[in-house]
Task: structure prediction
Amino acid sequence: MIPLSVPNLNGRELQYVKKCIDTNWVSSAGSFVKKFEDAICSYVKARHAVACVNGTAGLQIALKLCGVREGDEVIVPTLTFIAPVNVVKYLGAEPIFMDCDDYMNIDCVKLREFCAKECLVTKLGLKNKKTKKIIKAVVPVHVFGNPCDMEEIMKIAREYHFKVVEDATESLGSYYTTGACQNKFTGTIGDIGVFSFNGNKIVTAGGGGMIVTNNRLLAEKAMYLINQAKDNPINYIHNEIGYNFRLTNLQAALGLAQLEQLKGFIAIKKRNCELYKGLLSSVSGLDVLGSPQGTSPNYWFYSLLVEKKEYGMDREKLMNSLTAKGIQTRPIWYLNHLQCPYRKNQAYKIEKALWFWKRVLNFPCSTSLNLKQVKLVSSAIRSLSGDH
Ligand SMILES: Cc1ncc(COP(=O)(O)O)c(C=O)c1O
Result:
């Protein structure tokens, strides 16, 4: 079986994890946590990083730090893994769903239009005319590693007075090559950014997350909240309700060893993506999704766009045929505004997301994938097409 995406643990993972065990530092205190935080700061050029238990927890803390409370609203994309949507509800707020652009990232044209036409700037913040609630934040997700148009998102957010939490869980190492965000990494442009080190991510810690920000006070508050809000750790005084969201030293050790290999991982992912593009370019009804201009993505996940009529079969049939050939693929997420808990929430002119949802198939992209396997996957996809 050629898997969709598996970890590549060929660096110093064992050495670092063994050090935790040898020294008895396996839990949430220990030198690897700080080393991992520092290494992330230096890689993405962020001032502060706070390691946490996973990306979802990081997003929850980030939104809380942006002042999201019960009764507020947060703008989220409908085309994303559900985690950044659920965290809005964890805080007692409601998501408003936004459409996507040509790269499956949040549609900035519609975001601006929504703020201008459907909202009012008030003393309390941006008021949604329909629900009368205050929109506190937007969560742009850098889908599959492709950077969102952060320059425009930041302009809109400043103009309409709401905060920006970047869901950079999938885009560690992606950055901008031109414009106002030139040389900035995803996750470091909004008020707060969050990375994930889940098993399928480009860098894994087994599980884990990282909150990054350039604001010292926000970083200190994040650290306080993830550590049970301890005001006096000796006498157990807690003046706020905190969380047990810390990362363990064991996970940080694994994550650090992985992070040391990130540049190499991105280079392999880029090479394989370009190989696939070349090998599949002549197949009608198929496209490998590219990246927005002015960005250098991390190529985390590859997306095939399957046009049923021209290709000769739809996305589901292609997926099943590839499974039969021992090649694992996966359709893109179901749209969040159509998920049971969110059907009653506001969704603004969702069009492109529906288009992508019917067509996108993610296909093998592990960093351990070799040239022979890329060719094998490509010829399997080619051989199933109507052209063949
Ligand atoms: C877009 C997105 N947001 C958030 C998360 C949540 O991260 P974690 O699994 O570390 O909680 C993930 C994936 O896992 C994701 O893909």
Notes: The longest helix spans residues 262-280. The pocket of pyridoxal-5'-phosphate is lined by residues 54-56, 80-81, 83-84, 141, 167, 169-170, 196, 198, 209 (CB under 6 Å).
